[in-house]
Protein 1
Amino acid sequence: DTGVSQDPRHKITKRGQNVTFRCDPISEHNRLYWYRQTLGQGPEFLTYFQNEAQLEKSRLLSDRFSAERPKGSFSTLEIQRTEQGDSAMYLCASSFHDRENSPLHFGNGTRLTVT
Amino acid sequence: QKEVEQDPGPLSVPEGAIVSLNCTYSNSAFQYFMWYRQYSRKGPELLMYTYSSGNKEDGRFTAQVDKSSKYISLFIRDSQPSDSATYLCAMKGASGGSYIPTFGRGTSLIVHP
């Protein structure tokens, strides 16, 4: 079990550029979540997938954000035309959803800095 | 008012102290409760996962849930400097919009030698 892996760990970009983050969940997990965390705050939900289907998106997820999970394995989160307000830690988590509702397991996040 | 309230601290205690961390919530649909520990610049690490009201113990950690009061706690016995971190509570329901885990803002804990 290698845990949830996120890449890159840190991304610095200029305002207006596009960025893409990758998440590799725990292999047997069928649910994958994206959260955003700013300093001094808890993680805020962005979106989640069950297998390859994106089942819910938060109101926080503007049209500049898009997420995919092709083939139900890894996921990517893209932010287009980045703004300084997008600077945050982007966390990916996975879980195995069955009747018992297992908890989320997080990766170490991608820290985005928009200059 | 947020669905999950958590005092941000910081909470500073001497090594060996018993630490009590707490969260309150407003959504009665929440049925599953989690505590995570987060070190600086790392992702949250799951510590405890509980479903029913009552206590659950794991080593130095005890999670307590009181659904009637909508109040959960995490107790840390014999606290160590390595316990210094931010502790996040999280909760979710079994169906509908509440099944997406909602987090508190975290409590910063400092255990000094």
Note: Chain A has a mean pLDDT of 93.
Protein 2
Amino acid sequence: QKEVEQDPGPLSVPEGAIVSLNCTYSNSAFQYFMWYRQYSRKGPELLMYTYSSGNKEDGRFTAQVDKSSKYISLFIRDSQPSDSATYLCAMSGNTGGFKTIFGAGTRLFVKA
Amino acid sequence: KAGVTQTPRYLIKTRGQQVTLSCSPISGHRSVSWYQQTPGQGLQFLFEYFSETQRNKGNFPGRFSGRQFSNSRSEMNVSTLELGDSALYLCASSGGLAGGYNEQFFGPGTRLTVL
């Protein structure tokens, strides 16, 4: 079993839809939770960064962390064609120090 | 502020050769992490350096090695290349201290093809 599970999709939605992306994890030592966006042939770009449980909002993006369920989510409101990319969840914590584990990434397509 | 730069951007090698990839972090960042990205395995952690010291490494064979210089620039080396080493190699930099480590900024990657 992988430490971090993420459905690779692809996920296709119409423009303006609310998108929900999720990851589950098995290691309760994870404390830092990140979401990255990666466009084709580019490096990942940090979107959201949260510590421990709770919600964090930034514009159209909301990140949620539920440590009791070992489940994290990223919501994208009013999705745009420019949001079409691969979204990767990532986690780190007291797992032997300074090591980030990434999910497989979910490929998102937003249709105009 | 300039971002993370990686050189070269593309590389073609043959089996058995060795390769060295370079990464220049964002100015002021002291932590550099290296990742391998493939369609089948996704993004996998190779190793992380802070102030010229390797603080952690992933589950890769000893053919994969790295180092960091006093100016925080980093190199990774792969010896005796295998076909399965074909991948996008990404480097990420961060401040490196505690929580600051987790805000990583990635470079564009080096795409290595092994023939």
Note: Chain B is about 0% helix and 50% strand.
